[in-house]
Design a protein that fits this description.
mainly beta; seven-stranded mixed beta sheet; 52% strand
Length: 119
């Protein structure tokens, strides 16, 4: 069974950057699509980005395109989400898990990591 552990969240000012990490165990990264979604109070779950390490295919939520970059380190079984030009609306708990159908669904997510964008 695949498991994921997220890290790298924190408090950052608007316009700042953070890099989230997700370390997977139980399955090699190139055997499934992995991605990030986020949950903010009072909002529905939002798929942020997914990546297939096997073929390099990526997908992004429209509002993060050009600001966020997803990448994977197969040897480390770790996926990263580089987040630049952060906005207050990016504030949420970010979760990493197995991604289905370009983020329509996820499973096997971890405990999440809090990202707070505030002055």
């Amino acid at each position: 069974q695949v498991q994921h552990v997220e890290s790298g969240g924190g408090l950052v000012q608007p316009g700042g950057s953070l890099r989230l990490s997700c370390t997977a165990s139980g399955l090699p990264l190139d055997e499934y699509t992995i991605g990030w979604f986020r949950l903010a109070p009072g909002k529905e779950r939002e798929a942020v980005s997914c990546i297939s390490i096997r073929d390099g295919t990526t997908s992004y939520k429209d509002s993060v395109k050009g600001r966020f970059t997803i990448s994977g380190a197969k040897a480390e079984n770790t996926v990263y989400l580089q987040m630049n030009s952060l906005k207050s609306e990016d504030t949420a708990v970010y979760y990493c898990g197995r991604c289905y159908d370009y983020g329509t669904d996820f499973d096997s997510w971890g405990q999440g990591t809090q990202v707070t964008v505030s002055a």
